């Protein structure tokens, strides 16, 4: 199907089904119940799942295949966002031209930064990309204020030209991003008993883009190009002496992953039309590294899982506060209740980073292949022989005794 | 004129004269061995041939074209393949993938962005890869993780990866170093077979006299960066200068 092997086609189909039914799957708890705050099926968060999924899929093409660890990928996300917002300001509120410009601009920036950074490998490459990203952040935050909006960020205004659209709506408001009349923020609600399911236009649009990106990444993984990238990670010396020039391959991978980041940035701006410099901050670059490693470096689905896991924790765990904890443990005797709450408290709310850190450490130490390896181990536990389904070559390497 | 012509090559590393006025001519479709004690400059010479090092003076011509100043991948595309002292293969990839990469390099050149086609759909290259694996008796290992193989198998895979590109000149850097006797003999047999079946020139650097005398048509003895003598294996065996510089040391 679509030129994919059976196994990959199944994976793509599975992801498509999960994404299509996400509003149901992520809302398992009835509205108003104590568990309702664990529901993730609201548009804002679901959009973030798929958008950061795209970001991580693209990052994985560079990091997972070539092993080059870029620590500045958020810069391309920021470039994409700024480009998209400028398109909303100047051309029209249609998201398609915004996305096209964003991908092109981030590709250009990736070409430039990649060309320079890829002169070095290993830690020096990481440092170079980090330096570039921080420079771009600093520029966006201060010097380039006329283009980037500086500290306040780039926002839409009533007097923007929007030559192909309208500067303001009939009601005197700023128009909202849409796709040929379909507004991104539009939602339909389905009420079933005490469950409320929200179907959001923006989410489904981003989800379709994510599926296309995912499909493309499968094609890249299975292509000769993808194989060369894995060869670069494995043995650059041999690649050189096989008559292949590693430089254009790594640069192409860098540009492609930069364009994925730009696409993600454009989608973020399409969902909420503003762009700020903080999107390019180094923590944002670090986050996508965490997502990829948490999910499984070099696996197809891993980065999407990692992005989902981190965004879920960021949005759900950070919302739990001490009152909610007291509510949960109210059945305990008073002293014990306070004690349990005091133990758990550092891990919730603003402390969600601590939880994330512990989970990340656990995964890296016990599941070097990330969540995907965890899934495979569970599958193996239930007797399904999934050993041959290993699509990343992370099977335990056994060095022969010499 | 030989397929490989090395003329007056000099290379200094600081105060050390690694190569001094090296002249070497390798005839087409022969096996030329370069021997010499440790530090004689054998590996330096090899590195000058494949573009890893650039000699200070002198020229290196392959089939009439200079290789100096070219990168290793350009030199490989000219038709020179190199086998390393320790097998250099793509350890994270399967044996089959290891074979496909040189085939793609041969067909598509040093770079081509074929990111959408699938490797699996390249039936023709796959057949070529299978034929080559068959030739080195590794077809049953095609789907194996290549890092998990024995050193002897890695060596054979590396040679197969070089040969599948049909190079005109194959450079071997101590191909049997660290191998057990049985593996060494297998390698010798494999190389003999290659020599018979193909139009290929082989230049081999080797310590093991057994390997050298079983394969070489011509031997150059290198000592302290200069060629001491070049002759046929029979004459080298009894040559007094060689005995003194090299074989005497071994015996």
Automatic annotation (TrEMBL), chain B:
Coiled coil ranges: none
InterPro entries: AAA+_ATPase, ABC_AA/LPS_Transport, ABC_transporter-like_ATP-bd, P-loop_NTPase
Protein keywords: ATP-binding, Nucleotide-binding, Transport
Residues in the signal sequence: none
Domain ABC transporter: 4-249
Protein name as catalogued: ABC transporter ATP-binding protein
SMART domains: AAA
PROSITE patterns: ABC_TRANSPORTER_2 (PS50893)
GO molecular function, one term: ATP binding
């Amino acid at each position: 199907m679509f030129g994919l092997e059976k196994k990959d086609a199944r994976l793509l189909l599975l992801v498509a089904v999960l994404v299509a039914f996400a509003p149901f799957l992520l809302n398992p708890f009835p509205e108003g119940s104590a568990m309702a705050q664990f529901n993730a099926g609201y548009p804002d968060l679901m959009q973030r799942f798929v958008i950061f999924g795209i970001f991580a899929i693209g990052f994985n093409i560079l990091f997972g295949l070539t092993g080059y660890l870029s620590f500045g990928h958020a810069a391309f996300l920021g470039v994409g966002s700024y480009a998209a917002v400028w398109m909303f300001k100047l051309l029209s509120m249609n998201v398609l031209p915004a996305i096209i410009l964003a991908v092109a601009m981030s590709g250009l920036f990736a070409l430039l930064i990649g060309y320079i950074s890829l002169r070095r490998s290993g830690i020096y490459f990481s440092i170079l990309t980090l330096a570039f990203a921080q420079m771009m952040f600093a520029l966006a935050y201060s010097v380039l204020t006329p283009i980037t909006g500086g500290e306040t960020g780039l926002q839409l205004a009533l007097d923007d030209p929007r030559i192909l659209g309208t500067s303001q709506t009939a009601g005197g408001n700023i128009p909202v991003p849409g796709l040929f009349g379909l507004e991104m923020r539009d939602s339909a609600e389905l009420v079933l008993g005490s469950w409320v399911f929200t179907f959001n236009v923006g989410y489904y649009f981003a989800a379709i883009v994510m599926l296309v990106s995912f499909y493309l990444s499968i094609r890249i993984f299975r292509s000769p190009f993808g194989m060369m990238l894995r060869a670069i990670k494995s043995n650059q010396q041999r690649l050189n002496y096989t008559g292949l020039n590693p430089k254009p391959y790594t640069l192409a991978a860098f540009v492609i992953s930069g364009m994925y980041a730009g696409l993600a940035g454009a989608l973020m701006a399409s969902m909420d039309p503003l762009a700020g410099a903080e999107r390019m901050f180094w923590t944002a670059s670090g986050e996508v590294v965490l997502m990829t490693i948490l999910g499984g470096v070099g696996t197809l689905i891993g980065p999407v899982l990692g992005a989902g896991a981190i965004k879920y924790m960021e949005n759900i765990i950070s919302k739990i506060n001490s009152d909610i904890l007291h509510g949960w443990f109210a059945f305990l005797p008073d002293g014990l209740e306070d004690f349990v709450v005091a133990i758990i408290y550092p891990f919730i709310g603003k402390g969600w980073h601590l939880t994330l850190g512990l989970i990340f450490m656990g995964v890296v130490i016990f599941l070097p292949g990330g969540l995907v390896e965890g899934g495979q181990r569970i599958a193996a536990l239930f007797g399904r022989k999934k050993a041959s389904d290993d699509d990343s070559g992370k099977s335990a390497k056994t060095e022969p005794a010499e | 004129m030989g397929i490989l012509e090395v003329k007056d090559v000099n290379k200094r590393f600081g105060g050390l004269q690694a190569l001094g006025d090296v002249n070497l001519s390798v005839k087409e479709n022969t096996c030329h061995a370069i021997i010499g004690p440790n530090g004689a400059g054998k590996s330096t010479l090899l590195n000058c041939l494949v573009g890893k090092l650039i000699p200070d003076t002198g020229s290196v011509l392959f089939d009439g074209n200079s290789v100096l100043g070219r990168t290793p991948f350009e030199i490989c595309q000219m038709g020179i393949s190199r086998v390393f002292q320790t097998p250099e293969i793509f350890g994270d990839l399967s044996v089959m993938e290891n074979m496909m990469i040189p085939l793609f390099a041969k067909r598509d050149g040093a770079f081509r962005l074929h990111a959408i086609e699938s490797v699996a759909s390249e039936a023709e290259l796959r057949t070529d890869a299978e034929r080559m694996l068959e030739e080195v008796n590794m077809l049953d290992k095609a789907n194996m993780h290549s890092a998990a193989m024995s050193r002897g198998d890695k060596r054979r895979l590396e040679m197969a990866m070089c040969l599948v590109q049909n190079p005109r000149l194959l450079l071997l850097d101590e191909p049997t170093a660290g191998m057990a006797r049985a593996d060494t003999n297998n390698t010798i047999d494999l190389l003999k077979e290659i020599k018979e079946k193909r139009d290929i020139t082989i230049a081999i650097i080797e310590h093991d006299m057994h390997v050298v005398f079983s394969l070489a048509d011509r031997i150059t003895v290198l000592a302290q960066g200069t060629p001491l003598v070049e002759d046929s294996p029979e004459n080298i065996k009894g040559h007094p200068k060689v005995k003194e510089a090299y074989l005497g040391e071994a015996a």
